[in-house]
Amino acid sequence: MADLLPDRLDRDYEQGSVLFSGGTDSALAAVHLLERCRKVTLLTFDPGYVFFVENSRVHADLLRERYGADRVEHVIRPIGELVRKILFGDVKRDLREYGFDMTALVCMGCRLSMHTAALIHNLEHGIPVLADGSIEKQDAIPEQRRSVLAENRALYFRDYGVLHVQPIYGEARSDERLFEKGIAPKRGLKKQFIFFDTQATCVFGVPADVYARMFYKPLMGDFTDVESVAYCRERHPKMRGEIEAYFERTGQDLPALVARLRAQHPPAAGTATDTEAGDAAR
Amino acid sequence: MPPVDTRKSALRFAARYVIAALMIPVGVALGVGGLIQHALRQWRGSRGGANGH
Fold this sequence. Notes:
The complex is a heterodimer.
Chain A: E1 13-19, H1 24-34, E2 37-46, E3 50-51, H2 57-67, E4 72-78, H3 80-86, H4 91-98, H5 102-125, E5 129-131, H6 146-160, E6 163-165, H7 174-180, E7 201-202, H8 205-220, H9 223-249, H10 254-262, H11 277-280
Parallel strand pairs in A: 1-2, 1-5, 2-4, 5-6
Antiparallel strand pairs in A: 3-7
Chain B: H1 6-46
């Protein structure tokens, strides 16, 4: 059973991090996190096949201007090696198992590679919270489905002491909210496609989006949960292996780092159980 | 606000639609493949497969 963990912060923390593409969803997620955390690290990862990663600096700089450079840190980090192992580790087998659905699942493999890098960063820097800008409106995309989020949230909290939250999951117009708050440089940023003003362009993005919205979710319905969670579970041991190898290589005591994060959460967090969508997919 | 480079904007506008014109059909073609795959799974499932997968 998945642990009963909040999908948004209900208490204050000293530090948090956000998976930060630079788009309006992740920027608004950062704003929410800044309401609860004294310092927030914006984590932008470059898997090697996206263009214009530097665009992420637009909203990052505006957030630093608004909240102060001492409260907002922006890190751009290449993760090609992790992607090679986690997403592209066994392409032939993936194609045999998932076939055409890999068109949509490729984004989840990429996201899990980013999670691996983020977990390493959080453990290394004592950051107990990891947010992202997932939204329900985009739940045709596997990595933004409730079942997948609940599955990963339970694992990251249990194994690493990292609380993974989606503070704007119900928000459909993050561009408007961000503009109203005086952070987005112009209105209607969500209407942009392919070449964005504030985020990278991914070569897999358009076919993955078309496949997920027009075929995957309408056609497969609830089976997308089963398949997406299964794909995640296959990747989790690889992610764990990469995390353990990193800390072994750098001579850091992983259990001690996990304990440091766990100590920052309230004692009762994650002890109750429920039947979240993640369970339904099992 | 910095001045807008109209030539760059026009190029970006054109590139956006050229890429969309190329990549959307790729997504649709893969989707048709997925459709056939899904139908095959259903058919195999109806013939006694574990769960059609």
